[in-house]
Amino acid sequence: MSNGPLSTSLFALAKKYIPGGVNSPVRAFRNVGGEPFFVRRAKGCRIWDVDGKELIDYVGTWGPAILGHAPLPVIEAIHNAAKDGVSFGIPNPYEVEMAKLICEWVPGVEKVRMVNSGTEATMSCIRLARGFTGRDRIVKFDGCYHGHSDGLLVAAGSGALTHGRPDSAGVPAAYADLTTVLPYNDVAALEECFEKMGHEIAGVIVESYPANAGLILPQPGYLAKLREITQKHGAVLIFDEVMTGFRVAKGGVQELENYSPDLTAMGKVIGGGMPVGAFGGRKDIMDMLAPDGPVYQAGTLSGNPVAMAAGLAQLREMEKQQGWKRLDELGAIMEEAVLDTLKQTGRNYQWYRVGSMFCLFFTETPVRNLTDAKTSDLVSFRKFFHHCLDKGVYFAPSQFETGFISTAHAPEDLARTAEVVREALLAL
Ligand SMILES: Cc1ncc(COP(=O)(O)O)c(C=O)c1O
Ligand SMILES: N[C@H](C=O)CCC(=O)O
């Protein structure tokens, strides 16, 4: 799509003052070509760009907008909280309510601390795992993205993968060397790694359902194996539920799959669109944190009252609406339409979905890990993306991201989307 004049001039100005013109690389459209559009307004499942173009949105601010954009209960909660002050730097009642809710909803969390982003949440889990075990080595999986802290920007997914920089410059080799990368869904590789260096491993961090290289689901028994092997070797198992937490189920993947990790990183949905993150887990590990224990972690704006009020309103509204059931129904409607379209268009592309999260890989190879995901035909994806955008449907501007449905997507929106997807596939 060629953008309207306002987006075009804003991007020209942005590039002058902001590196690459964006505040997060995934927004730059580099992988699909063209330029990002600028958003004026978003409501429900729709966004409007500054030139007045209307789009059905499946990015949902990269996950947080589970009720759609600007849901009334969240907006009212933000107004009400802000009237009493936007930050105190002293404990406030909202953060206690949020902590209690998280501990009640997420099976593996007995105590929790709030932070301001998913990056801070995973970074703090790693420090805590190291402090608790007295070991240094971390294991992560190829294509999993855990934010942009140094030791986790190794073989990373999301924008790092999209832009061909899975290992970032600026990370000291001595530090990156403490991160061991394994292929996801490969039990033999996991066993070999623990056999060789189990005594050195502080923790294993995994996106509970990897969703930053497209959406990849665990093979039966894989999460059980992770739980068993970490327990056996005294390593801390960290589920990164920044994306899946409170989205695939009230209690995240750990509720769906019935495996509790030792620590959980959270974010996105719990902030109702405000900047937020959280990490929590076993009481004995969490009690290692300052001021009770020796592992330091802090934040000027952590537990911010406006962010807490927004997140609480969003979570309560989801519970009131039985939102997770609705999202699964909407996801099933979309799935049926896409599978039907693939059949009609003779494409054997790989479709994966869990509840409201989905990905269509432009490959005929089943996707179980990053190597499989990389067999995707990126040229066709790029054409598909732009066709959909032209016709008013916005998917993430990269094959290596996941789509999100919100409770504000009506069946008619999904039907219109299916029509556009069919046209786009036929036009390839
Ligand atoms: C699974 C996962 N972990 C961590 C992060 C980092 O979160 P944030 O962008 O809020 O720092 C993200 C998203 O960016 C994510 O998808
Ligand atoms: N895939 C990322 C998070 O889930 C995209 C968000 C970002 O990095 O801006």
Report what the structure shows:
- It comes from Roseimicrobium gellanilyticum.
- Homodimer.
- GO terms for molecular function: glutamate-1-semialdehyde 2,1-aminomutase activity; pyridoxal phosphate binding; transaminase activity.
- Its cofactor is pyridoxal 5'-phosphate.
- Belongs to the class-III pyridoxal-phosphate-dependent aminotransferase family. HemL subfamily.
- The chain is an alpha/beta fold.
- The protein folds into two domains: 5-67 and 322-426, Aspartate Aminotransferase, domain 1 (Alpha-Beta Complex); 72-319, Aspartate Aminotransferase, domain 2.
- It contains 15 helices and 14 strands.
- The protein has helices at residues 5-17, 72-83, 93-105, 118-133, 159-162, 173-176, 187-197, 222-233, 252-257, 283-286, 305-320, 323-345, 370-373, 378-390, 411-426, and strands at residues 39-43, 46-49, 54-57, 111-115, 137-141, 179-182, 201-207, 236-240, 263-267, 277-281, 350-354, 357-361, 393-394, 403-404.
- The strands form three sheets. The chain has a seven-stranded mixed beta sheet, sandwiched between helices. The protein has a four-stranded mixed beta sheet with strand order 1-2-3-13.
- A hairpin with a 4-residue loop joins strand 2 and strand 3.
- Helix 7 packs parallel to helix 8, helix 12 packs parallel to helix 15 and helix 14 (378-390) crosses helix 15.
- The radius of gyration is 21 Å and the shape is globular.
- The mean pLDDT is 96.
- Bound molecules: pyridoxal-5'-phosphate (PLP) and ligand LHPZP3FS.
- The ligand N[C@H](C=O)CCC(=O)O is lined by residues 24, 26, 62, 145, 158-159, 212, 243, 401.
